[in-house]
Amino acid sequence: MKTSYIVIGVIVVVLLFIFFWIRESINEKKGMDSADKQAIRDIVNKLVPDAGEYMAAYAYWELKNWGGGGRSITTTTRYWYYAVAFKPGTIYVIPLSYSGSAVSHGDPICLNKENLGMVNAKAGESWASFYDLERKEIVSLAVAYYNTRSDKYHPVNIQQKEEQQAFAAFVRDFMAEVNSYRQVTVTGKPLQPLG
């Protein structure tokens, strides 16, 4: 009797693994040249001057906050979505919002060494935080290779390996350019730019 429960349990676990693996494989293939990826490029083409000179990518930021007191702890996670267009010396950040599969956008923000106080990032990684001249955070974002639509908080199927690698190289060089220009040294730790 116990053996049959163990066998049934193993079969259920294997079937669930196969289901999720197949679903992720389908989402990954859809994301290579997806409508979501094209929507990002279309937004960049519409809003960024000389858009053809820029690499376009989907970016996001996720921030968890813990709170509560006594015996209860609450977690709140906030999400932000962006289209980014970058080339040496300049990045445009375009806020996005999703309602189901429909995407809308805000106004682009152009960032360069003249209007930034510092950039915090870690060399080799594809995230960055950008700060104004008073060193207040403007925006933080990350460009991930693997983005699959799994729930309302992960609204796109976009695979962007080339874009992620290009963004990591861009951030490394851009951070060095801005921080050298402003004579500031950053920690490379998220949410803690200065030591």
Q: What distinguishing features does this structure have?
A:
single chain, 195 residues, alpha+beta, five-stranded antiparallel beta sheet, 3 helices, 34% strand
Summarize the structure.
The protein is an alpha+beta fold and 195 residues long.
Please, could you describe this protein's structure?
- The chain is α+β, with helices and mostly antiparallel strands and 195 residues long.
- It is 34% helix and 34% strand.
- It contains three helices and ten strands; from the N terminus they run H-H-E-E-E-E-E-E-E-E-E-E-H.
- The strands form three sheets. Strands 1, 2, 3, 4 and 5 form a five-stranded antiparallel sheet that branches. Strands 6-7-8 form a three-stranded antiparallel sheet, covered by helices on one side.
- It is globular, with a radius of gyration of 20 Å.
- It starts with a helix and ends in a 13-residue tail after the last helix.
Topology:
Blueprint (H helix, E strand, L loop, with lengths): L1 H31 L2 H13 L7 E15 L2 E16 L2 E10 L2 E4 L3 E3 L6 E3 L6 E5 L5 E6 L3 E2 L10 E2 L1 H22 L13
Antiparallel strand pairs: 1-2, 2-3, 3-4, 3-5, 6-7, 7-8, 9-10
